[in-house]
Amino acid sequence: MLTSQRKQHLLSVLQRDGQIVAKRLSQELGLSEDTIRRDLRELAAEGLVQRVHGGALPASPAVVDFTARQELASEAKVAIGRAAARLVQPGQVVILDGGTTAVQVARHLSPELRATVVTHSPTIAMELVPHPGIEVLLIGGRLFKHSVVAVGAVTIEAIGHVRADTYFMGVTGVHVQEGLSTGDLEEAYVKRALSSRAAETIVLASSEKLGVASRYVIAPLTEISGLVVEHDVPEEVTNRYQELGLSITRA
Question: Start and end of every HTH deoR-type domain (predicted)?
């Protein structure tokens, strides 16, 4: 089997099974595990898979910069943002992550709502400037331009002084076994810190983020409370998350 044929077969297996187990595949194809791993390394370099211990998972298509993400599944993100905004109650302190889906949450908060939003995203803060009843606490730090959020030691230190009701988290990957992930290490640390300061964490998860993984782990799914997903995500997909005790809000 030619290299190109092997790679195409690997991608077909990934699409069919949702994962690649290198040992099992090497036995099925009569090839060495080293050959499979080499192919996976090359596919990962092309952004087509995310390597994990023992094999690979689908790579998240959401690991692109902020501008590009604005064009990715935009209708779904509007719906998810609207549904998440309805979960915010008067008087609450909520943490709102950076990212294009979080922007939609900010845009859909009720004009009558009086609450406090904590964010490390200048974009989110600017969205909320016209809102008459929202007090905005903007956390500073080094600006990570890729996602337009603050990161670093200064950011994590400031987060430690916050106690919130709910954190609406943005991610690039949600996977039953591999948990929550994102494409930058510092972002992963900041998201984990934010989650630790909220009574509950709700993940904003458009369909391209479900069942995929990115390079840096934020937390296992057992550390969050629920997901906000598109209305037409199949039940066989959401059931796997509900079995872990997560609430599912359909947009």
Answer: 3-58
Torsion of CA 146, 165, 181, 76, to 10 degrees: -70
User: Hey, what CATH topology would domain 3-58 get?
Assistant: Arc Repressor Mutant, subunit A (1.10.10)
Q: What is the pTM of this model?
A: 0.80
CATH number corresponding to 66-250: 3.40.50.10470
Least confident of 53-57, 71-75, 123-127, 177-181: 71-75
Evaluate whether 3-58 and 66-250 have a shared fold: no
* Percent above pLDDT 90 for the chain: 65
Q: Are strands 134-138 and 115-119 parallel, antiparallel or unpaired?
A: parallel
Segment 28-52, tens digit of pLDDT: 888 888 888 888 888 888 888 888 8
Query: Domains of the chain: which residue ranges?
Result: 3-58, 66-250
d(CA 79, CA 229): 9
Residue (of 46, 51, 36) closest to 6 by Cα position: 36
- Residue 58 neighbours by CB distance under 10 Å: 21
